[in-house]
Amino acid sequence: MKSIAISGSPRENVGKRDAKELRYQGLVPAVLYGGPTQTHFAVSAADLRAVVYTPVVHFIDLEVAGVKSQAIIKDIQFHPLTEQIIHVDFLLLDEKKPITIEIPVKLTGTSPGVKVGGKLVQKLRKLRIKALPKDHLDAIEVSIESLEVGKSVKVSDIKLDNLIITNAIEDTIVSVTTSRALRQAEQEAASGKK
């Protein structure tokens, strides 16, 4: 799993007025929890862009007042109109405790069903994975090499070592459906045989 380093500065005051002032300065109020105490701090909004506006999941090497820790982003609050990040919750990682993270799904190969005119439909772009931090992956690869028209890959078809998928096992990840063009071609072929 990739890591990104972010440094923060401790917050003396925790309140609405202080948070508003921080945002005005281009900073985002944040909290790190999961340890013995919560740590309130502020991070640069620019530093968060590389972590927030990407489909890739990152561990964060966080440094606040000289104290280094590894964390993940657990929750982000956005302004309803401007989409500006207004608050971030970080969760401290413990190598002995499993964590649940949404990991992107990466499709690999070429589907024979698509080659004959079927339509590829990806229903899940991320899977919820529970594992120890050291076992987490950057992406879950799903092969579509054997997907014919009308076939699908479900969560139950994915087997991963040391990882537990917490999505419902009957959920469809990707399928190949009959496209309008393929349906029309099949109807024309059927009417030509008569």
Automatic annotation (TrEMBL):
Annotated ranges, domain Large ribosomal subunit protein bL25 L25: 7-90
Question: Record's Gene Ontology CC terms?
Answer: ribosome
- Per its UniProt entry, which superkingdom is the organism in? Bacteria
Keywords, A to Z?
Answer: Ribonucleoprotein, Ribosomal protein, RNA-binding, rRNA-binding
RNA-binding listed as a keyword: yes
The record, for InterPro entries, names: Rbsml_bL25/Gln-tRNA_synth_N, Ribosomal_bL25/Gln-tRNA_synth, Ribosomal_bL25_b-dom, Ribosomal_bL25_C, Ribosomal_bL25_long, Ribosomal_L25_dom, Ribosomal_uL5_bac-type
Q: What is the protein's quaternary organization?
A: Part of the 50S ribosomal subunit; part of the 5S rRNA/L5/L18/L25 subcomplex. Contacts the 5S rRNA. Binds to the 5S rRNA independently of L5 and L18.
What role does it play? Answer: This is one of the proteins that binds to the 5S RNA in the ribosome where it forms part of the central protuberance.
Q: Spell out the family assignment given in the record's similarity comment.
A: Belongs to the bacterial ribosomal protein bL25 family. CTC subfamily.
Q: What is this protein called?
A: Large ribosomal subunit protein bL25
Q: Which organism is it from?
A: Mucilaginibacter pocheonensis
Name of the gene encoding the protein in the UniProt record: rplY
